Amino acid sequence: MKYKRILLKLSGEALMGEKNYGIDSSLLEKYSQQIKNIHDKGIEIAIVIGGGNIYRGIESEKSGINRVQGDYMGMLATLMNSMALQSHLEKLECDTRLMSGFNIDQVCEPFIRRRAIRHLEKGRIVIFGAGLGKPYFTTDSTASLRAVEIEANIVLKGTRVDGVYDSDPEKVKDAVKFNEISFDEAYERNLKIMDMTAFTLCKENNLPIIVFDMNKPGNLIKLVEGKNIGTLIY
Ligand code: UDP
Fold first, then answer.
1. pLDDT of residue 170
2. N or C: at which end does the chain have fewer Cβ atoms within 10 angstroms?
3. Which pTM was predicted?
4. Ligand 1 center from residue 81 Cα (angstroms)
5. Any idea where the domains of the chain sit in the sequence?
């Protein structure tokens, strides 16, 4: 296997599938199966999942909700997605732990770095819910910081597009895909891969990112086997 320890970032939006809101459980089932497949190969897996399918703090002010309040609502949304994913993984008999960025003791344990690493060493899949527990951050920045903290080899950002393009492939017909691109070039070209906080954290800590299509079954396992899929940002 190419990696020992990975951080998998899944967007909340992807969880909607064909729906307009909430969680499409058939997608969660598919994701969980793919995660189990790489877990069976002995990969240590940490997961961060977004909340955009339920609530996004950045949009809260439009509905008369204070931004910080909205961000906490967004963090709760990520926790709900994390709990759903945890259940699906447990159905497949994967050992899991959910760790939260803020205290919510009746639901799960708080994030404690050493403990997270211990869980991973013991082969448990660790899900980081509630983001970093701080407003004005995103789940991309959560993925980057947690990956650095737990010394993951790579951030695998699962999306519904199959990599990074020079323009938006959902809008521009002849957009060109990169197989790999350096952090510096991605900056120069102003490519929107992750928000700046997340991106800078990865760059400064030499933590590579691979953006790939999580909706294509088999992609995740091919990636950890070292096959060339998606776009590598290094
Ligand atoms: N959020 C936050 N701090 C964090 C992580 C998330 O405030 O550390 C909030 C923020 O409001 C964000 C929402 O949670 O809009 C949902 O996360 P995100 O938009 O990153 O999810 P995705 O787009 O990946 O579904």
1. 86
2. N
3. 0.96
4. 12
5. 5-233
